[in-house]
Write the structure tokens for this entry.
Amino acid sequence: MGKLKSLKEKRAAIYTSIDELRNATNGREMTAEEQERWDTMLSDYDKADKAVEAEERFAEISRKQAEKEVAQRDRTIGQQLGEEYRRAFGDYLLNGMHGISPESRATFEQRAGISGLAAGVLIPSTLAAEVEVALKDYGGMFEAATIINTSDGRDLILPTINDTASKATIVSEYDQSTKKAPSFGSVTLKAHTYRTPIIPVSQELMQDSAFNLDSLLSGLLADAISRGVNADLTTGTGQSMPTGVVTAAVDCGTAPAATSLKLDNIIDLIKSVNSAYARKGKFMFNRNTLWELAKIKDQNGRYIWHEGARDGSPATLFGKEYILNDDMADIGAGNTSVLFGDFSKYNIRMVQSIRVVRLNELLAEYLSIGLCGFVRVDGNLLDAGTNPIKKLVHAKS
């Protein structure tokens, strides 16, 4: 940087000399000596300017190279720390909190920031990612919605505003403009605690060096958590639990028959959603509804929904993607079988990450330990009043 500063100062000095000569001649014709000095200074300025540009370019290259080296070092350190935490996590599962090494305890307390680890041990990030994938595969809500992670469980207030009634009008000169206040509101997300059933794991199983304990824990925790969380995020009442997307969605106003569904009903559902949401709209239904829709034929006996049939299942319906959620109800009297709209407006709030607690004494007589996972979650539709998601509710009879 010192060299660049020196080059810039040299360029500035040459410019000052050029400017002084220009002012001295004051528009008159230069003498031969002045013209020679002028040409020389212009040439020197060009060289100085190129030298500054070259040094600036070098400085930019050096900066980018340094950033890459720092990023690579951070990744290496992160991988090392992640591996250290994963080893400490295995130590915790095998030996319990009172039997782990001082190094493992320090690793836990540094990562979790919890004195005494009273709230359990965080699952390693690599394992948490495996659990997240399983949640998506099992349910559908984590795939469709917007996920907000917070560091604590205090109420999370999401503001809403509805100004859709306001529109510009022609106003004559000197006439007063109209006043109309927008409608403000909010949605509050809490932190409901979901616990898995206690999973017994034998000491023999944990000591088997060929056994992948992470995979076992990932599968068991993922299934248990997703069954409870996804169901409530889909159909929860909002009373001491999340407000499910089915509960929050608004009836489209068209009631399909009690035990059947037609493509005309789907068209009415799409039509009922404002185009501002329909542009990014997706369907949500379960697998049984998917195949009932796929079986609909035209008057000539041809399947209407033929797109993607070559691969075994349709890709889109009326050009819109669909999300499979097996916690949605089947086609049936009074049931909500299909949703359509912008599912990014449904917000899932998660506090930190999934945690696991090791229970040492509960199953001691069986030479086993108990593992219990828990996560704090809430969810609700962010609806300012224009209903981003609509639902098809079948007739009751």
Observations:
- The two ends are 81 Å apart (CA to CA).
- The first strand starts at residue 121 and ends at 122.
- The chain has two domains: 2-84, 123-162+182-393.
